[in-house]
Amino acid sequence: MKTYGLIGYRLGYSFSKGFFTEKFEKENLQEHEYVNFELDTIDEFPGIFEKNDHIAGLNCTIPYKQQIMPFLDEIDEEAATVGAINTVKIIRSEAGVKLKGFNTDIYGFENSLKPMLSEKHKKALILGTGGASKAIKYILKKLGLSYVSASIEETLNEGEIRYEEINEDLLKEYLVVINATPLGTFPKVENCANIPYEFLTSDHVLFDLVYNPEETLFMKKGKAQGAAVKNGLEMLHLQAIKAWEIWNM
């Protein structure tokens, strides 16, 4: 049996478990399983190998994307730059087990956002400053877009603004708006980031990392102004496909 799994805190429904369980069934991979490993603290991480000697690959979600790094033997260059891990490759040899960390969110976000962009999209507004924004900033920089982040934190860091500063003039410049917060996630679908949606236009691109519901209030409000919108589901599919490649390369 080959066991793949997700490391997290309180997982409940997990996209990864659903995606890979369906994949294994469709491809008749009967000796494969995908399980959720709920850890109360990251210190419990080494223990999963003691109980499961046939782990073949792992995904990692919040709050452990950064906390897992000291437990790894090697970290991919891009993942090290972003400072977050969501995929762990298990390398077995006569010398023992080696763990290498990757970040496939980078691949997923880039390949989901890129088709939406054109020459006019030179600046992006990121809503939120949490862990998810790290991969976003890396990709925006790679694609040549400058960015600012809207923050609710008491202290602003460099490149951050208050939500109150988002006005018509700013939105005329920042034609890409990315929701990197959980606002609008089911069941609280009536929530969305507090920005002046009335100043959005058909030149704008709105990308929401939330994927449940399929169309968030953030997306609906953008769509009503003619903006192009996309949710985070394609990004999740792409990062999962990339993780599978990494585990099997």
The third-level CATH topology of the largest domain is Rossmann fold
N-to-C CA distance: 18 Å
- By DSSP (H or I, 4+ residues per run), the number of helices equals 8
**Helix percentage range:** 25-40%
- Give me the strand/helix succession: EHEHEEHEEHEHEEHEEHEH
Q: Quick recap of the structure?
A:
With 249 residues, the chain is of the alpha/beta class.
Report on this structure.
The chain contains eight helices and twelve strands. Helices cover 29% and strands 24% of the residues. Helix 4 (105-113) crosses helix 8. 36% of the residues are buried. The protein is an alpha/beta fold and 249 residues long. The strands form two sheets. Strands 2-1-3-5-6-4 form a six-stranded mixed sheet. It has a six-stranded parallel sheet with strand order 9-8-7-10-11-12, sandwiched between helices. The protein is elongated.
Topology:
Layout: E1 2-8, H1 15-26, E2 32-38, H2 47-51, E3 55-60, E4 74-75, H3 77-82, E5 87-93, E6 96-102, H4 105-113, E7 123-127, H5 132-142, E8 146-151, E9 160-162, H6 168-173, E10 176-179, E11 205-208, H7 217-224, E12 228-230, H8 233-248
Parallel strand pairs: 1-2, 1-3, 4-6, 7-8, 7-10, 8-9, 10-11, 11-12
Antiparallel strand pairs: 3-5, 5-6
